[in-house]
Design goal:
The complex is a heterodimer.
Chain A (H helix, E strand, L loop, with lengths): L8 E6 L5 H8 L13 E2 L8 E5 L2 E2 L3 H10 L5 E5 L1 H5 L9 E3 L9 E3 L6 H28 L1
Parallel strand pairs in A: 1-2, 1-3, 3-5, 5-7
Antiparallel strand pairs in A: 4-6
Chain B lengths: L1 H34 L9 H11 L9 H20 L4 H20 L4 H32 L19 H14 L27 H24 L9 H21 L5 H25 L1
Helix pairs in contact in B: 1-3, 1-7, 1-8, 2-7, 3-4, 3-7, 4-5, 5-6, 5-9, 6-9, 7-8
Classes of the chains: A alpha/beta, B mainly alpha.
Chain lengths: 147, 289
């Protein structure tokens, strides 16, 4: 296992979530689940983060914000859509202002459905994301060697 | 002779301090987690973090922040080398300030508002702790009769008996120097939302890794300064020095976990009051006695 998956730093963005999923994301950091056991830290800074956790659907107002956070993150990076709204738009899918899931704005690597998404589901999704992060990290190392 | 000793000390510090500092940082995170009722990360987590940061893609806003951070690292190693090879305490304090200045320059170079705010606050932190550091060194000189660290082993008793007020003042500003809450204004290790990360906002990858390694080295050096007050007679007193340094480290973690961040006005005022009261009284007593 490489170092990329041993120290996954997370940035969390609330797109247009009802806050249900956000509470669960933060609950995963609390003593009950304590994801810092796996080196996971909530950074609040895209330049330091490896994993982008998005909650809520993408709409006309926040699509540029989601894109900008993604662009500011340094490779290798992965995106996890947390909750059904982030996956597909959920119960808000036919709202006049809702574009849809996060994958309408940026490439999503792992989908974690649920309303609200359970902390266990978030941890599962992040663990799956670590595998993808590891692959991307190896690909980047190869590219660096080649260059 | 002295130059070669310093050079050997610098190389030894550059190799050993990151190892010790990394373990201390890992211990800090485990102890902090236990204080919050959590299990916490593995002991080597800070090492994993830095290895990951080195492997990240190279992205920089200004192109020079990495150079500034390298300079900061070199000066930190030099300050540690001067101190741990038994050199001049005052020189060590000046050289580590150079490292702090390069860190501030690195933050300013990105021109990002968050980063500039962090750099401004880091400057205020330097302003806050520097008077006490100088008075601490002066008190050490008056008690030990020399600025040279190696001379403490020739003393009949540790300098702490003559410099207790200065030591208390130094412990106060140690929290600022270690960037621990309530004085982690410029960049916080627990920044989740507010003001993002101050000085390190625009740093990523290798540059951020350099910041982490610099923090490790700084921590080792400052704990060395703490231990200095308790050394005398022969090298056997080093055991007491290490115990005191670790106790001070635990004390800092306890403070870090129990206090909310203060405003810079309070930090500046309280640090200068501590410097004038603790350092001033100590100097007067030493002059009279």
């Amino acid at each position: 296992m490489g170092y990329a998956s041993k120290s996954p730093w997370v940035i969390h963005y609330d797109a247009s979530s009802c806050n249900g999923c956000d509470i669960e994301v933060l609950a995963a950091l609390c003593p009950g689940y304590d994801v810092e056991r796996f080196g996971i830290i909530n950074t609040g800074n895209p330049k330091h983060a490896d994993i982008f956790l998005v909650t809520g659907s993408v709409n006309e107002r926040n699509i540029s914000v989601v894109k900008q956070i993604y662009d500011q993150m340094v490779e290798p990076k992965v995106v996890v859509a947390c909750g059904i709204c982030a996956c597909t738009g959920g119960i808000f899918h036919d709202c006049y202002n809702v574009i849809g899931g996060v994958d309408k704005a940026i490439p999503v690597d792992v989908y974690a459905p649920g309303c609200a998404v359970r902390p266990e589901a978030i941890i599962d999704a992040v663990v799956q994301a670590l595998g993808i992060l590891e692959e991307k990290s190896k690909a980047l190392a190869e590219k660096k060697k080649g260059a | 002779m002295s130059f070669i000793t310093t050079l050997i000390g610098t190389v030894a510090f550059a190799v050993l301090a990151p190892i010790v500092g990394c373990l201390l940082a890992g211990l800090d995170r485990i102890i902090s987690a236990r204080m919050q009722g959590r299990v916490g990360p593995p002991l080597l987590q800070p090492y994993y973090d830095v290895r990951k940061l080195i492997a990240k893609d190279d992205v920089t806003v200004s192109g020079v922040d990495g150079v500034y951070m390298t300079a900061a690292l070199v000066f930190t190693a030099f300050a540690g080398g001067i101190f741990f090879s038994g050199g001049n305490l005052l020189m060590s304090a000046f050289v580590i300030t150079m490292a702090a200045l390069f860190f501030i320059m690195a933050a300013y170079s990105s021109r990002s508002p968050y980063s500039e705010l962090g750099a401004g606050r880091e400057t205020l932190q330097v302003m806050s702790y520097e008077p006490m550091v100088l008075l601490m060194a002066v008190c050490f000189y008056m008690a030990a009769g020399s600025f040279n660290v190696r001379d403490v082993f020739g003393l009949p008793a540790p300098v702490i008996f003559a410099t207790l007020p200065a030591f208390i003042g130094f412990l106060f500003i140690l929290t600022i120097k270690l960037r621990k809450s309530p004085f982690d204004l410029s960049t916080s290790h627990h920044a989740h939302q507010e003001l993002v990360r101050g000085t390190t906002t625009e740093m990523s990858g290798k540059t951020l890794a350099k910041v982490e390694v610099m923090h490790w080295c700084e921590n080792v050096l400052f704990l060395g300064w703490t231990a200095l007050f308790f050394l005398w007679g022969g090298p056997a007193s080093l055991v007491l020095g290490v115990v005191v340094a670790l106790a001070a480290w635990f004390f800092e973690i306890l403070i870090d976990n129990n206090f909310a961040r203060v405003k810079w006005q309070f930090m500046l005022r309280s640090a200068w009051v501590m410097a004038l009261v603790c350092g001033g009284i100590n100097i007067v007593v030493l002059m009279v006695a």
